[in-house]
Amino acid sequence: MKLVFIGSSLAIVWCMRMHRTVKRSYDRPLDTFRHYFLVAACFLLALLVHEKFTFQEIFWAFSIYLEAVAILPQLVLLQRSGNVDNLAGQYVFFLGAYRALYILNWIYRYFTEQHFSRWIACFSGLVQTALYADFFYYYFISWKNNSKLQLPA
Predict the structure, then answer these.
(1) Which residue from 152, 106, 153 is spatially nearest to 128, judged by alpha carbons?
(2) Closest to 26 measured CA to CA, from 96, 81, 72
(3) 103-112, pLDDT tens digit by residue?
(4) How does pLDDT run across 60-100, given as a tens digit for each residue?
(5) For the segment 27-47, what is each residue's pLDDT rounded down to a tens digit?
(6) Which helix (H) or strand (E) holds 57?
(7) CA–CA separation, 63 vs 68, rounded Å?
(8) 46: exposed, middle or buried (C-beta count within 10 Å: 0-12, 13-18, 19+)?
(9) Could you give the 3-state DSSP secondary structure of residue 40?
(10) Which residues share a beta bridge with 37?
(11) 83 bridge partner residues
């Protein structure tokens, strides 16, 4: 399964960089989010807040922290553009729904497993779901009114 995930990720990156139609849709003037600060902050947080000071544990915490905020560049880009096409809106909505369902999984595991103590994953998941909350609100309003999804600029 990991090979499918890695292969599909590489295919997506290839399409974004090489495919003419997809590459043309990239709007560089609106994409000014400085993602390297986000990566650096997540790495620093992983060095400071982790369960054990081991190489594997620090990089696990780093990946969890980075996953929690990885949607920020996309949300900022959608916010700056104002109008959200249907495919991008559905994609971001289902990413957020996936994370919200994870919270139900953690609640279930907390009550059914004796030693469930992944507090870093739970806290990061709550942060990530909170980042989606604003998008969910506008997504629901556009769905209720049967109109195109527009985010305030």
Answers:
(1) 106
(2) 81
(3) 888 888 888 8
(4) 999 999 989 998 988 888 888 877 888 888 888 888 888 88
(5) 778 788 888 999 999 999 999
(6) helix 55-69
(7) 9
(8) buried
(9) helix
(10) none
(11) 150
